Amino acid sequence: MNRKELHPEESPKAAFGQRLRFLRDEQGLTQDELADLMGCSGTHISAVETGRRAPTPRFARTADRVFGTEGRLERQCLAVRQTAWLEGFPEYVEQERRAAEIRLYEVGVVPGLLQVPEYATVLAESDVKRGVATPEQAGEQVALVERRQAALTRTPLPSIFVVLDESCLRRPIGGREVMEAQLTRLIEFAEQPNTVLQVAPFEMGARRPLSLPLYILTLGDRSLMSYAESAQRGRLVRDSAAVVPLLTSYHQLQAEAQSQAESVATINKFRKGTL
Question: DSSP class of residue 71?
Fold first, then answer.
């Protein structure tokens, strides 16, 4: 039987199709047999698998029920429908949910894992006003922030290391109340037993080894994965050997940044308006 070769790296839609085919093959089901279980046609299953048709949330929920995948396909479906996401980010988020260690360096905005709802909402609404996202996509962005944060409460807890460029603190997002709530959240984050929070002050100058946001994951098998993005492009690196130099730069950044105690003091000054 001729089967179309799938290329999951091409897009979130292609990745969803490849995952659906893998699960179907694993269960020994034909497209028509899966269609009977899901209440659709074999032609529809074929179209989703080959990326000719995007899955709907209802389709993904039904597939999760059939395969017992506990919401994974529905989350992956969200990545397909959230066209504002850059390439590689949906896969990064999926891996983040099971990572043993998470390292973040962010510039300009507080990273999603640390955002309060009000802060996340202002950012999403700004995207709508600028015409780069629809209201539906904005809602999905805020919902994703909540899901990513909820996944951090798993057992065992992941170790989370965050370095914030000083611009994350200086850039006002929303009104005074929003920023005060956000800065308070950062202080609370630093108090958790599995976290380290540091601020990279402007005065670091040329000693700063990183200039763009960078996320690095250490997975359960100690393999590494990194994700970085510019304004229009995301890049996911799955090769541990290629991530090691980035991890070295991250460690250098941590060494040059303020200690956690100094960082909390700096954040408190911004919160009180004394900086």
Answer: T
